[in-house]
Amino acid sequence: MFNKDYFSELILSKLELQKKHLLNQWSNPKKTQTKHFIVDNLLSEEDCLKIYKSFENKKIVWKVRKSFRESKNTTAQVDNFDSIIPAITDAFQEKKVVDCISEITEIDEIEGDSSLYGSGISSMKKGDFLNPHIDNSHDSNRQSFRRLNLLYYVSPNWSEEKGGNFELWDKKIKNPKTIISKFNRLIVMETGPNTYHSVNPVLVDETRYCVSNYYFSNKSFNGKKYYHVTSFTGRPNQKILRVYGLVDNFIRYVASNYLNLKRFDHRKILRK
User: How many domains does the chain contain in total?
Assistant: First the structure.
């Protein structure tokens, strides 16, 4: 029986062991302006394989996302999986793990999000992709800024040739840095107004699984107040999608602000 304490201790041990190296990675990003670090062999191979095999539960109901923005399956209902899936997901939310990552990234006052707003589990099969985008800037209540994205990959023998790899883009969204979605690899990246990232199309008849988590803070990426929805654009050769993305992002931004105002008005009525 796996539990979050078991995994959080292993994660913390690996982070502490590599802290100096990870701090250097974070402070000196290459081929991208987005700060990030990579931890390989986060857990034992045996434990990671058990996590992967738990994803193969055919009874799980995935939420299918298909549009010009993305093609993938997701779920935040981690409790529907075997105990190992909620255990590994919750382990990243443990305060000691959050605090250690806070030290490595030198971002003060970050907190986990046990509600898994925007995070959870994802699966990507042949043809699936995630176009360049920036993440939603806030938590569900718009009280805290989204600051860190944690991605843990568990599909065995994953190589660059299979596609489905993580990408971090330069400021002009022209040249990506490709990071292989390697088995037992953790990627931690900072999120902000210009931290564009993506996943290139999966090219093989295999499934790429990922456990994702977000961390939040009352302090923003640049010390300023801002708000944006998850905003997509096309790849450099998708010029029409780049234009369409601007329109799509604006419409969803306006809709999000309208719905937030409605929620605010509702809260005022309840307080009267």
Answer: 1
